[in-house]
Amino acid sequence: AKAIFENMDVLSSLMEPISIGTMGTQKPYRFSFEQYVQEAKTKTPTRKAADACTMQLLISAMESQTTQTDGTCELAPECSAQILKGSGLAFQQTSRIRAATLAYLFDCLEGVDIPAHIYKLCIQVYKETKSLEAWDIPPGTRTLFMQQILYCSTQGYGEFIKPRWMNRILAWQEPKGCYSDDRQPFLKLTGFVGLTSVPSQKEREEEYRVKKAASSEGGACNSLTSAMALGSLVIYIRALLETDQAFQYDVLT
C-alpha cells in the first residue's frame, strides 16, 4: 500500500481511459470452486517463474533507460512465452497480466499488439471474477479478487468497477483500517506455490509475516492484500471523478 502511494505517478501512467461494454456478459463457470482449484493446478507460471519474469522486465527496462542507448527492453524467450502463450487461472493469470502491462509500459515486446493481448486476458479474468463472486469469494481468494479488479480496471475495463464489488472490499477492511492476508493456503492449493518444495529463508520469513498479519486485528498495511484493496478503491474513486456513469456499471452484471 505504501508503495502505491509513493509511486502514484507510475500507477497513473498505467491507467487507460475507462469504458464499458467491451467485456460482454461473461457468465460464471458452471463447475464448482473445487474443480476450479484443480484446473488452476494445471496452469502456469509458478510464482517463482512469474517473479523472475517481472524482475527481468524491470532490470532490462532500467538498463535500457540508464545507458541512454537506442536499445529496447529485451526479454528471454521463456519470459515472452509466459506472457503470450498458454492459458491461466487464478494468480497464474493475473501474473501474466502484470507482466504484459509492464512489457507494454517499457516497450519490451516489439511487433506485438500487447493491449489486444491484455484485452483477451481480461475477458477471461472477468468470467473468473464473476465466478469467485458466485462462489461467495471462497477463503483465500480475496486478494485474487481485488487483484483481478485492479489489473483489468486499470486497463480501462469499466465492467470491473462495480459498486457491489467495491462494497465487498470495504466490508473486508479490518477495524484498524488495513486488510488481513489469507491467501497462502489458496496459493498452494492452486499450485502457484509448490506444496513439496523446501521454502527458502526469505519465503519462510514472508510466510511468517503473512500469518502474523492475517491473525492481526488490524491486518497489515504493507501486505499485498492491502495494496490490492487500496489500488481497487483508487480506481473506483477515479471512475467517480471522471464519469457520472460509475454507479451504472452494475447494469452489466
List descriptors:
253 residues, mainly alpha, 12 helices, 58% helix, SFRICE_018922, DUF4735
Tell me the structural class. mainly alpha
Task: Give the N-terminus to C-terminus distance in angstroms.
Answer: 29 Å
**Overall strand count:** 0
Low-confidence stretches: 1-5
Secondary-structure element series: HHHHHHHHHHHH
Gross morphology: globular
Protein name: SFRICE_018922
Organism: Spodoptera frugiperda (Fall armyworm)
InterPro entries: DUF4735
Task: Give a verbal description of the structure.
The chain is mainly α and 253 residues long. It has one domain (2-251). It has twelve helices and no strands. The chain has helices at 2-6, 8-14, 33-40, 47-66, 77-84, 90-105, 114-134, 142-154, 163-171, 184-189, 201-215, 224-242.
Kindly summarize this structure in a few lines.
Helices cover 58% and strands 0% of the residues.
List the helices and strands and how they pair.
Layout: H1 2-6, H2 8-14, H3 33-40, H4 47-66, H5 77-84, H6 90-105, H7 114-134, H8 142-154, H9 163-171, H10 184-189, H11 201-215, H12 224-242
Helix pairs in contact: 4-6, 6-7, 6-8, 7-8, 8-12, 9-12
